[in-house]
Amino acid sequence: MCMSCGSFSVHPSRRSVLMGGLAALAAGTLPLAAQPADEAVDPDIALQRLLDGNARYISGQRANNDFSVGRAQRVLTQRPFAAILSCADSRVSPELAFDQGPGDLFVVRVAGNFVSEDGLASLEYAVNFLGTRLIMVLGHTNCGAVDAAIKVVRDKVELPGHLPEMLREIKPAAEKALASGGDVLATAITENVRLGVNRLTTAKPIIADQVAAGGIKIVGGIYDLATGSIGLV
Questions:
Q1: In the CATH hierarchy, which fold is given to the domain comprising 40-232?
Q2: Cα–Cα–Cα angle for 43, 66, 56, rounded to 5 degrees
């Protein structure tokens, strides 16, 4: 409570801050530097940059080691050439795995790398206001969130707190993998990435319309924890 004015001080949620920023951008009240870059990177070139960076990461020949380079310029604007929807797993770091520096990637992270409403809004922000033309849904091997969804479907495991709400989005991938047999976890991880790609591709109005117009591309990938390699799905 503020003693001088007699009112409570409320910290805004991340979503309210984002929506406020979008409104400011739409009204033209944010600096021009926050607008999309004129030299937006072609989706195919952006994808190749990611794959080339991952090759450097695997070989131990990283090009991005001094993260202080360009710090002053980044104060004014960001122009990420790709957006990554990644799992929140602590063993997965998109900037490292793709050997990219600060300002290169717009990363949204959530356990199980599924498309939540807040995550979708963040990706819409990247596409609509930052000029990002490539989005990758990035899963990874041995994903605990996907494994938990499998246990919920197969073994009827009941989880505490808000975990059931999270796993609800992953369960369709678990159900499909259990029906197909084989390596259930690996199949479910792949299917979960595909669900995310499809969800984004059809996410109206911003992303779906851009995909239909050929302005952006949505792809899926899986990070191998053992090798560091990222394969496209």
A1: Beta-carbonic Anhydrase; Chain A (3.40.1050)
A2: 50
Instruction: Give me the pLDDT at residue 67, please.
Output: 64
Residue 178's CB is within 10 A of a number of other CB atoms, namely 14
Tell me the three state secondary structure of residue 199: helix
Q: Are 133 and 83 in contact, with CB atoms under 8 Å apart?
A: no
Mean pLDDT of the chain: 86
Cα(131)–Cα(119) distance, integer angstroms: 17
- Kindly state the tokens that stand for 178: 């259990």
In the predicted structure, residue 210 carries a pLDDT above the cut 70: yes
Token pair 């409104």 is found at 23
Q: What is the pTM of this model?
A: 0.82
Cβ atoms 70, 102 nearer than 8 A: yes
Token readout for 95 is 């900037």
Distance in angstroms (rounded) separating the CA atoms of residues 195 and 7: 45
